[in-house]
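Note to self: the last two entries modelled the partners one at a time, which told us nothing about the interface. This time every component goes in together.
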Amino acid sequence: MFRFLYPKEYISSVFEMSAERIKKLDKDTVVFDIDNTLVPYWIKVPDERLVRYFRSLGDAGIKTAVLSNSREERSKVFCAVTSMPYVFRAGKPRKKGFYRLMDKIGSSPHKTIIMGDQIFTDVWCGNRVGAYSVLVKQVSPKDELITAPKRPFEKIIVKMYLRYVRKNGGKYE
Ligand SMILES: [Mg+2]
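The predicted structure of the combined assembly is written out below.
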């Protein structure tokens, strides 16, 4: 019933999505959510490990970009460190912001992985545009006020999703 909200994969950290793995999936672009996907919401810049990770993808010819529902300052400061392109106030799960980002970086949705910690914004958005949606376990248990009320519903969807995957022999499709 809620298949449209299911991610293609559920991973515990973005680092699991290595350049090698991305190439194996035949994708050339990764679109990241920032808050609670890469860093907790109060951390303004990527740490060294993240910077190294972004570089490892770039070195492998994989484009990286940020799609954030937050205000401009958030993406601007975070992305400045590695000069990563971004679209702010993306309005996920609406498709418009995602397409704007695709235009900006010259990528297409079916070659793109979207990684985020929220079902109702990141995963749903990715599924709507035909991108490869990856749900990432939130890096901090602390959510912003706007996010917190959605978590109990997300938990239900994730539970259904995991049961579905289990029944399906560990495979999404
Ligand atoms: Mg988030």
